TrEMBL record:
Gene3D superfamilies: 3.40.630.30. SUPFAM superfamilies: Acyl-CoA N-acyltransferases (Nat). One of its GO terms (cellular component) is cytoplasm. It comes from Streptomyces alanosinicus. InterPro entries: Acyl_CoA_acyltransferase, GNAT_dom, Ribosomal_N-acetyltransferase. It comes from the Bacteria. This is N-acetyltransferase domain-containing protein. GO terms for molecular function: protein N-terminal-serine acetyltransferase activity; protein-N-terminal-alanine acetyltransferase activity. It holds the Pfam family Acetyltransf_3. Residues 11-171 form the N-acetyltransferase domain.
């Protein structure tokens, strides 16, 4: 697998590793479970997900899962998933989903991560990045807006969950 590392000098994004499982489980809290995973993680479940993510990297699959890392020791502060194919996306759209562990929130790290991954997505052929957010998730809405995403359409998932879409034209990232 080609190791990739994106950095802006403050944070780094790199593929999730099996040794991230313990930190991820320790950092999971109610908002992360509610907005991202839908249920509390288990060690076996998190390790299986990380192995799936590594396989996606190795096979150039549609999922690119990153750890959001901070500091010289690259401590795991959260995760970011970039999906080049997902239900409801048009060709050229990529879905961005992110979450920070509680002790890392409120520092602008999620916005930095979204901006870094947007440049990566553009380099990989993405035309528009999409962040789909439940309207009550005001912190995620704020990240999308700070990262230059603009409101788009509103959808409902199969379970009736409302999502507001925030969209960023990635072609501006390649100019």
């Amino acid at each position: 697998m080609r190791e990739i590392k994106l950095s802006d000098g403050i944070i780094a994004l790199s593929p999730l590793r099996l040794d991230d499982a313990e930190t991820h489980l320790a950092g999971e809290d109610e908002p992360m479970v509610r907005w991202l995973s839908g249920g509390p993680g288990t060690r076996a479940g998190v390790e299986a997900y990380i192995r799936h993510c590594r396989e996606q990297w190795e096979t150039a699959g549609p999922l690119r899962a990153f750890g959001i890392r901070v500091g010289a020791d690259e401590m795991l502060a959260g995760t970011l998933d970039l999906r080049f194919a997902a239900e409801g996306l048009a060709p050229g759209q990529v879905n961005v989903a992110y979450g920070l562990y509680p002790s890392w929130r409120g520092r602008g790290l999620a916005t930095r991560a979204v901006l870094l991954v947007s440049r990566y997505a553009a380099d990989e052929g993405g035309k528009e990045a999409v962040i789909r957010v439940e309207p009550e998730n005001t912190a995620s809405v704020a990240v999308a807006q700070r990262a230059g995403f603009v409101p788009g359409k509103h959808t409902r998932g199969g379970d009736g969950t409302r999502h507001h879409w925030y969209i960023r034209d990635l072609r501006i990232d390649t100019q």
